[in-house]
TrEMBL record:
<dbReference type="GO" id="GO:0006635">
    <property type="term" value="P:fatty acid beta-oxidation"/>
</dbReference>
<comment type="pathway">
    <text>Lipid metabolism; butanoate metabolism.</text>
</comment>
<dbReference type="GO" id="GO:0018812">
    <property type="term" value="F:3-hydroxyacyl-CoA dehydratase activity"/>
</dbReference>
<comment type="similarity">
    <text>Belongs to the enoyl-CoA hydratase/isomerase family.</text>
</comment>
<dbReference type="InterPro" id="IPR018376">
    <property type="entry name" value="Enoyl-CoA_hyd/isom_CS"/>
</dbReference>
<dbReference type="InterPro" id="IPR014748">
    <property type="entry name" value="Enoyl-CoA_hydra_C"/>
</dbReference>
<dbReference type="InterPro" id="IPR001753">
    <property type="entry name" value="Enoyl-CoA_hydra/iso"/>
</dbReference>
<keyword id="KW-0456">Lyase</keyword>
<dbReference type="InterPro" id="IPR029045">
    <property type="entry name" value="ClpP/crotonase-like_dom_sf"/>
</dbReference>
<dbReference type="Pfam" id="PF00378">
    <property type="entry name" value="ECH_1"/>
</dbReference>
<protein>
    <recommendedName>
        <fullName>short-chain-enoyl-CoA hydratase</fullName>
        <ecNumber>4.2.1.150</ecNumber>
    </recommendedName>
</protein>
<comment type="subunit">
    <text>Homotetramer.</text>
</comment>
Amino acid sequence: MQFNNLLVQKENNLAILTINRPAALNALNADTLHELGQAIQMLTEDQEVKVIILTGAGEKAFVAGADIAFMQQLDPIAARQFALTGQMVFNQIESCPKPVIAAINGYALGGGCELAMACDIRIASEKAKFGQPEVNLGVIPGFAGTQRLARLVGKGKAKELIFTGDMIDAQEAYQIGLINQIVPHDQLMDQTKKMGLKIASKALVAVQLAKRAINEGLEMPLEQANYHEANYFGLCFATNDQKEGMAAFLAKRPPQFQGK
Ligand code: CAA
């Protein structure tokens, strides 16, 4: 599949999906969002791909937000639809059965911070900067930033960031729990691929069910979520990889997982 605003590369069991509009700091317009949705669908169905890495083209930005030039003339109905489209694509990333890791190479602002938050794991260059600067434009976050930021860093810090529009550096983003790791800028892709390959080497169904258990469970009361986890735990015992993983441990040899 050919894309105008994205690059897709595959290596080993990883897919690297790059938002490729560097002249606009990879800002998200409706076309880019639609392509992102199509690419995620394509990679979800691709049996060779076990982990997806999402990054931005160029040295400066992961994604500097929704495209302001595109949004400027929208009427309220079209703006609402644009927000819903972004939310739908980001939900698709969040619920994609395969782990999605954001490799944050620079600015992750507005829709860019929201995109990173829809990923499972966030690894950032030491040069990365984060923020929800929408109030500077007379709007609020529209791609679920009010919700995902509050869930990730807590209500108080989310309100501070969203009300002030302040940008924070990678160090502060790490301290508040917005990102998982900070790495030297020139090691970002290597370190992200290293984590991707580590995850790809594990029992595939177990990783996928763990993602579901965490995401779905967080929307449930604890007792129900724990029961849900037990159901997925039981389901793992229907896989060859559970038999192999436990047999390999007891035989003191590395497991040979088949992904089923
Ligand atoms: N939309 C459209 N174009 C953008 C953009 C955006 N979000 N961010 C940057 N660009 C464009 C600039 O207009 C500029 O284009 P030209 O070269 O044609 O003038 C180019 O990218 C480079 O940007 P700058 O010259 O501004 O680069 P800089 O290094 O001086 O500043 C920056 C970098 C601080 C990230 C600055 O570009 C900036 O503040 N960008 C906007 C960030 C923002 O407000 N994001 C939130 C958008 S709203 C949103 O996302 C809503 C939502 O939740 C759905």
